[in-house]
Amino acid sequence: MKRRILLFSAGVFLVMFFTMHMVVDQMAQPDTDNTIDETKKKLVKLNEEIDQLKSSLTKTQNALVPGLDNTNYKSKALVSVDSTGCGFAQSEAGLSADIRMLDIYKIIPFDNPDGGAWKQGWDISVPSGAFDNEILQVFVVPHSHNDPGWIKTFQRYYMDQSKHIISNVVANLIGNPNRKFIWAEISFLSLWWNDASSSQRESFKRLVKNGQLEIVTGGWVMNDEANTNYYAMIDQMIEGHEWVRLNIGIKPRVSWSIDPFGYTPTMAYLLKRMGMDAMLIQRVHYSVKKYLAQKKQLEFMWRQNWDHGTDTDILCHVMPFYSYDIPHTCGPDPAVCCQFDFQRLPGGGIWCPWNIPPQPISPRNVQQRAMMLLEQYRKKSRLYRSNVVLAPLGDDFRYADPQEPVRQFTNYEKLFQYLNSKPELKVKIQFGTLSDYFNALLKTTGKNDDGSPKGYPKLGGDFMTYADRDEHYWSGYYTSRPFYKNLDRVLETKHRAAEIAYSIASRIANQEKIAKFATNQFNLLVKSRRNLGLFQHHDGITGTAKDHVVVDYGNRLVQSVGNMQNVIASAAKLLMLKHKESYSSDEIRFDMDESRASHDSLPEKRLLSISNTRVVVFYNSLAQKRKELVSVHVSVPNVKVLDADGNSIKCQVNLQWKNKNSPRDNKFEVLFPIEVLGLGFSRVTIQKTDGSSDGCKPSKTSIYHHKVKNDLVKGFDVRNADCGKQYITMENQFIVADFDRCTGLLQNIADKSTGIKRTAELRFLQYMTVSSGAYLFLPSGTAKEVLIQKPFFRHISGILRDEIQAFYPNVYHNIKLANTNGIDSRSLHIHNLVDIRDTSNRELIMRISTNIRNTNREYFTDLNGFQMQRRRTLDKIPLQANYYPMPSMAFLQDPKLRMTLHTMQACGVASLKQGEFEVMLDRRLGQDDNRGLGQGVRDNKQTPYHFALLLENLTKKQTMVKSKIPIAYPSLVGHAVSQTVNHPINIMFGTSEVIPDSLLKQYSPLKSGSFPCDLHLVTARTVQGEGDSKPTDETAVVLHRYGYDCGYGMTPLLCFPLGSKIEFKSLWNLGVRNFKETSLTMMHDGNERGGEESIDLTLQPMELYTYKVKFSG
Ligand SMILES: [Zn+2]
């Protein structure tokens, strides 16, 4: 009772703090008309708000589960809380940029006129005398673009090309100090390193250290930016940077990303926090390139829309022309530039499609050739602010032929010699690295105090959706090969869970001297980091590789999923055992409840055979405590579930069906709610009962459009139901949802806090196409509805969950509503099992039509699961251009309501009409789309999808974010739903030798059992030591403080948001021996603190932080 009162007063205090800050915020806004009267009015309003917030807070506290001992944490919050979390989302960010991508889309006509030699631009003229007074500096940057899997597998490319490329480059640079080269893909470099002789390695290092060879970006791969989640982006960058640090000993400082099909500010932010100085991108919509070029804005400081200052600015260079190949990089005329690709000389195996071949440079032609090339460089320089020109010299897998470096370097050296020997030409030309270019640029422009070039514009927004020509929008790859996009996320959640569990368990093992623990586990983690990293490649997760390459990726992913499950199970055993020494027993083991037979098969739930009592263990990889329904498959229907104290847990048992007519008699689904602390483990036991009343309650099944016998299984109510006008209704404490009684499809949904029913009609439709391919979405007209007349479906209702299982053409559609008071009950869960293998040239979508009035067809989609971007559907661009990536969520809103569709995996999304959104589910395509892949997409699989539909009412008096603001934030509930969808609770079965009493009741490494709601543990990843695959005693702890919108309430969260400060050690039950601030990927270390000092951290909303921590057990 005392604790309740303390909680309540703490809550009121919190409200007062939030509100006071809002007053200050509002008063600080410049408003010349603001009279004293108006201010008074505002204060009255704010008082009303206090009341409202108070009541919502009371609700939140009521949702707290008795027995959760987090007073310690909350009293901390009480002392230091302020409203930065709420105030952050309320303030008007995103308007300080000079170039706002959302506004630019309004301005650009997207008319695509023929620009002449530079087809998508214009005829660039160089006024005479333009170079009289300044020297044009040209950096020719030799590079080779190596895809870790595309037409060939990663390994095949390495053997056939990449291996030779690196060797050739090293051999040609050594002894030629003026020759330069850049290399991006660490995955290939690490293979070369393993094969290289020690003298080759030494040469490579020497070239890097003397500046001839630059490692750019230094990621494991050049990652895709549309479908990737920021977790996997960071993870693959850490893997690359750790490799570079351990093997070469340098820190990449500029980024080179020439091939991903569109770019997000998330990547720019990550690069900034890694400590990069500048970045380069290339695949930007041709009309956007032209617009920026006309204003000399192809170089800018890229700023996060959520940045309230200038702290996230990073210098970005956009390549101006069609491609990164040599014809499109020396200047505007590809017919000319192609003649300076000396690999296209006779014997090189390739030629110029413009039919003017290159000529070897000789004393006879050098003047004419040099002047021709100089003209292109001069024209190119007119598109930029400085007199420094970047001229990349390379293409896909170039320099593999040992003759190529000789051809390119020697011919260019002759051109350089000529041009540099004529002072009247005012040109200084040389080979350079990307850093050489940016350094020269900054030298000529001068630098501001923050190191940025003087006079450069700031840009806010993203570069989606990419088009390279005509109406060829690259929005197909947002969905292509969805089976593997799903498998990617499965590995992400398992991998992250395993990293964290391993990092904690290895500290405990170390303390308890359990030598057996670490053997080979870390090897599995490193392998999984690399397999997951490899798939983030822009032909991996994008679904744009050849069939056999997709299989190679799939095998890697599925192998690592299995390995990560073993790591998790092993850590669970160690952490849950009361007596750690029994860890060495092989009979005592936990097995994951799910397994996969092969790279293209669906996960299968393991059957828990119950003869007497079995232990089931749960692991929550999120840092917040959660309460959710879990599902276990058991061999008998008469069971009960006991918590660790031996108390019965409410449970439901469902039938499993062999086919339409017959339920299984040896497999049943048991559902029950469980609570698991943050990063914690808990357990239950499942026991067979004699059929008495304390067992799990059987659900009822109603069957539509098919007749079955009513008494199929003893104890279960199965009946035939009739189609009719009334709805099938599902309801819990938060939601009421209506379904059509003839089709089983969702019709309406209401949030019970207001009771206002909203239309939400869910339908399946398909686009026909004759030209879509793996990259491009090119529909023939609008989508046609998939006819659903009398579908077979079941409605299953029980005390803990209601669901509809409907069998539609190409989709098994399963909608569930949980009835716990946990976060899983806050949204409607949609599971689709999509199978379009019997179609051809079809793109299947799911559309939800609502009466939400989102004006101007504006809505929000996420970028890499990290931030939300406003989208506006436009008529001047084609349908496919209005598709955007949805790696984790999208929402529609009007002044009263927000509806969010959360997804477990990346797919394409659009909102073509007001109140509507649609997601693309799968694509089956008979043709190639002429981007080099050379095949259609016909390797479709049965693909699972998990969506959650969340309805949130805007708290009265809170206002929706204004239309000019390019960003919005999910609520804390929205964040929690997303995490729940993406990180399901891990379920493990103890072998029959595991006795409940030998295990702890629960375990969590967190002191209060939960992080604050807005603090996400991105990863806790054991740092790699010298020599491959050796762990150190350091853990990289990556934290993300969410930006969140306070306007939508917090029920039913079991946590509180962060105050302005947090003491790091107070979060953990583990000891902290040493703590070091570091950059995102640990390249640049900051302050260090020892074991005795307190570690107060001030974490800003939206920001990511990495710390190197030495935990003790
Ligand atoms: Zn590529």
Automatic annotation (TrEMBL):
SMART domains: Alpha-mann_mid (SM00872)
Signal peptide region: 1-28
Pfam families reported in the protein's UniProt record: Alpha-mann_mid, Glyco_hydro_38C, Glyco_hydro_38N
Aminoacyl-tRNA synthetase in keyword set: no
Protein EC: 3.2.1.-
Catalytic activity: N(4)-{beta-D-GlcNAc-(1->2)-alpha-D-Man-(1->3)-[alpha-D-Man-(1->3)-[alpha-D-Man-(1->6)]-alpha-D-Man-(1->6)]-beta-D-Man-(1->4)-beta-D-GlcNAc-(1->4)-beta-D-GlcNAc}-L-asparaginyl-[protein] + 2 H2O = 2 alpha-D-mannopyranose + an N(4)-{beta-D-GlcNAc-(1->2)-alpha-D-Man-(1->3)-[alpha-D-Man-(1->6)]-beta-D-Man-(1->4)-beta-D-GlcNAc-(1->4)-beta-D-GlcNAc}-L-asparaginyl-[protein]
UniProt record, GO biological process: mannose metabolic process; N-glycan processing
Cofactor: Zn(2+)
Superkingdom, taxonomy of origin: Eukaryota
GO molecular function ontology, one term from the record: metal ion binding
Protein name: Alpha-mannosidase
Organism: Trichoplax adhaerens
